[in-house]
Amino acid sequence: QTVVTQEPSLTVSPGGTVTLTCASSTGAVTSGYYPNWFQQKPGQAPRALIYSTTNKHPWTPARFSGSLLGGKAALTLSGVQPEDEAEYYCLLYSGGALIFGGGTKVTVL
Amino acid sequence: EVQLVNSGGGLVQPGGSLKLSCAGSGFSFSGSSMNWVRQAPGKGLEWVGRIRSTANNYATEYGASVKGKFTISRDDSKNTAYLQMNSLKSEDTAVYYCATGDALDIWGQGTMVTVSS
């Protein structure tokens, strides 16, 4: 079964930029994996941020962007705000199933 | 307001069954696929499965860990999706969320399922 891997944790300064990545055990992530990104804060349900690699939902702040980078899906946060501190999950479509990555804890410090 | 409301969670003994519900409002429920996602305490998200819309013949897909044990259904006349869980084990203990659409746009608040004797 496909395993989706994310960085366990990343730290970024307020106003800085951080890139999270999402890799597949089956090989390079392409647009055909329809990468999605979600944000989850403690005690809350996840919130959708990015779908199909680069597309933003109406509520997604402009500072969040999705891309493909070096064979992985990527989520870039530019001009990080304190409220961006959260867990971030990617989701890939592979072999007829959806598979979440293990999540990246982003600390704003 | 677009909304999903989860219900039906609780304490169940190992080997037991439980049926969760997810009621939608404020959007075209019948035209949307419905996903179930769970999160064990202190752990990450796990996709459980989904049921597609009538346009896709209500096709269902499941994650490997629940295939053959869980069943997803829907009643579009009630704008409600269901997750029937059988042969429950302690490792099924989690918060269960429903989420709508192929992009899992909107999420319910989740309902806690605890499998314990």
Word description of this protein:
The complex is a heterodimer of chains A (109) and B (117). Chain A starts with a strand and ends with a strand. With 109 residues, chain A is mostly beta strands. The mean pLDDT of chain A is 97. Helix content of chain A is 0%, strand content 53%. In chain A, a hairpin with a 3-residue loop joins strand 5 and strand 6 (55-56). Chain A is globular and about 40 Å long. Chain B contains no helices and 11 strands. In chain B, strand 5 and strand 6 (60-62) form a beta hairpin. Chain B has strands at 3-7, 10-12, 18-25, 34-39, 45-51, 60-62, 70-75, 80-85, 94-100, 106-107, 111-115. At the A-B interface, strand 4, strand 5, strand 9 and strand 10 of A face strand 5 and strand 10 of B.
Give the proportion of residues in helices of chain B: under 10%
Determine Rg of chain B (CA atoms, Å): 13 Å
Oligomer: heterodimer
Structural class of chain A: mainly beta
Largest interface by Cβ-Cβ < 8 Å: A-B, 24 and 22 residues
Compute the gyration radius of chain A: what is it? 13 Å
Main sheet record of chain B: 7 strands, mixed
User: H/E order of the elements of chain B?
Assistant: EEEEEEEEEEE
Please count the beta strands of chain A (DSSP E, at least 2 residues each).
11
Low-confidence stretches of chain B: none
Tally the helices of chain A: 0
State the order of secondary-structure elements of chain A, H for helix, E for strand.
Answer: EEEEEEEEEEE
Mean pLDDT of chain B: 97
Helical stretch tally of chain B: 0
Q: What is the share of helical residues of chain A?
A: under 10%
Mean residue pLDDT of chain A? 97
- Percentage of β-strand residues of chain B: over 45%
Beta-strand content of chain A: over 45%
Q: Name the poorly predicted regions of chain A.
A: none
Measured distance between first and last alpha carbons of chain A: 36 Å
* Distance between the ends of chain B: 39 Å
